[in-house]
Every structure is written in structure tokens, then in C-alpha cells.
Design a protein that fits this description.
Blueprint (H helix, E strand, L loop, with lengths): L7 H9 L8 H12 L4 H11 L3 H10 L11 E6 L2 H5 L2 H12 L12 E6 L11 E3 L2 E3 L4 H12 L1
Parallel strand pairs: 1-2
Antiparallel strand pairs: 1-3, 3-4
Helix pairs in contact: 1-3, 2-3, 3-4, 6-7
The site of FE2/S2 (inorganic) cluster has 11 residues, from helix 5.
Length: about 160
């Protein structure tokens, strides 16, 4: 199930842990992102109110940093590299397998809220190409068969 939106009270409690100063904006958004895996609209409104900054400023910061997202994310992010080294060693077939097994395209989240699929240009482990990251774990020399097995393991 996708993460639910926090109630106003929940966000107010979170905000109360920070000084009521506009300089706290990024720190607060990062904390909310960490907890909910995205920035729910109710939380953004409450942050703007608490710090007395315009909602447009909260939105600008939320969309500027890559670590922050306005879209609900799965519990685990699957990042598949589509960089040159990985591409040459068959990452497209691995990506097709992930799409088929999870039923989602890059940028989407499974309906059970478990996985979000992302493509990236290099994971800095080209020698292990093709590379997939599931959460914080890096998996190299991926093949369609191996990713199928791995997805089964992390789904249980
Ligand atoms: S190109 Fe895939 S890890 Fe560098």
C-alpha cells in the first residue's frame, strides 16, 4: 500500500522539533522525506505555516534537491544503470525483466508500495556492469535470470 499522508498534528509535532526559523526549511523537508519517503502536500503546507515562509518557497526547495520528491516512493528504490558500460553489457534486458516482474515502468511505484523503479546514468561501479541497486545494496553482473531471482528474494 502506498504511504498515507500524515495528519496535520503529526507534522506539527515534527515541526516543533525544529527552531521556528526559515533557515530550518531544508532540514525539516529532509526529515519529512526520510519518514514518509516523499513530501506529502499537507506536510509542505504545514511547514510553510510553521516557518512563516510562502508555500512557493517550500515548493521551490522541494523541487530543487534530488534527495526530495513530491511523488510517493516505494519502501525500496530499485535503480538500474543505463550508462554506456551497463548498456553494452545488457542492462536493457535486465530493465525489461524488472518491468515485466514488477509491472511498472521507470518513475513508477508498485501498487503495494514496495518498490519504485528508477533508471540512472552511472552508479560508479562500471567494472561490475550491468549494475542494479536495490535500496543501499549494489548488485553487479546482473542478468535477466539473476534479477528475477533477486526480486523474488527481496519481495519475501
Ligand atoms: S555505466 Fe553503469 S555503473 Fe557506470
Amino acid at each position: 500500500m502506498l504511504p498515507k499522508e500524515p495528519g496535520e498534528k503529526e507534522v506539527q509535532e515534527l515541526c516543533a522539533g525544529h527552531p521556528q526559523h526559515p533557515g530550518e526549511l531544508l532540514a525539516l523537508l529532509l526529515e519529512i522525506q526520510e519518514i514518509y519517503h516523499y513530501l506529502p502536500p499537507t506536510a509542505m503546507k504545514e511547514v510553510a505555516r510553521y516557518l512563516a515562509v510562502p508555500e512557493s518557497q517550500v515548493y521551490a526547495v522541494a523541487t530543487f534537491y534530488k534527495a526530495l520528491t513530491l511523488k510517493p516512493q516505494g519502501k525500496k528504490i530499485i535503480r538500474i544503470c543505463q550508462g554506456t558500460a551497463c548498456h553494452l553489457r545488457g542492462s536493457s534486458e535486465v530493465l525489461e525483466t524488472i518491468k515485466e516482474v514488477l509491472g511498472i515502468a521507470p518513475g513508477e511505484t508498485t501498487t503495494d508500495g514496495c518498490f519504485t523503479l528508477e533508471t540512472v546514468n552511472c552508479l560508479g561501479a562500471c567494472a561490475l556492469a550491468p549494475v542494479v541497486m536495490i535500496g543501499d545494496e549494489t548488485h553487479g553482473q546482473m542478468t535477466p535470470e539473476r534479477i528475477r531471482k533477486l526480486l523474488q528474494e527481496v519481495s519475501t
